Amino acid sequence: QVRLVQSGGGLVQTGGSLSLSCAVSGHALTIQNMGWYRQAPGKERELVVRIRRDGDTYYSDAVKGRFTASRDNDKNLFWLQMINLKPEDTAVYYCGYGGIHWGQGTQVTVSS
User: Fold this and answer.
1) 69: how many CB neighbours lie within 10 A of its CB?
2) N or C: where does the chain have the smaller number of CB atoms within 10 Å of the terminal CB?
3) Nearest CA to 28 among 96, 95, 94, 75?
């Protein structure tokens, strides 16, 4: 059974930094594409960054230059480093892949 367990997040002031991690178990092979998503209250879930197996990344314009995704292919571990956070980054963040496997979600709150 595939399981994604997230950790990190929390409350930070504008301009602060946070990091998230996502540990995947039960998936025998290296995950090809892992995405980090976020969902703010009253809004749809949106893709923040997608990282491929070879490390290539795609960032949304909203986070480009401030967020950095990384991964450990051998251990199916994934990280999202966030700097210069803004109030509009406040959301529940999810790691996910395949459209069907999701982490439990982690709250990130940025105070102004």
Assistant:
1) 23
2) N
3) 75
- CB neighbour list of residue 110: distance below 8 Å, 6 or more residues apart: 11, 12, 13, 14, 16, 85, 86, 87, 88, 89, 90
Take residue 57 and report the two structure tokens written for it.
């990344």
Please compute the mean of the pLDDT values over residues 23-39 and round it to a whole number.
93
Specify the length of the chain in residues: 112
Q: How far apart are CA 3 and CA 24, in angstroms?
A: 6
User: Are 96 and 3 spatial neighbours (Cβ–Cβ below 8 Å)?
Assistant: no
Contact 60, 39 (CB under 8 A): no
pLDDT, one tens digit per residue, over 39-83 is 999 999 999 999 999 999 999 999 999 999 999 999 999 999 999
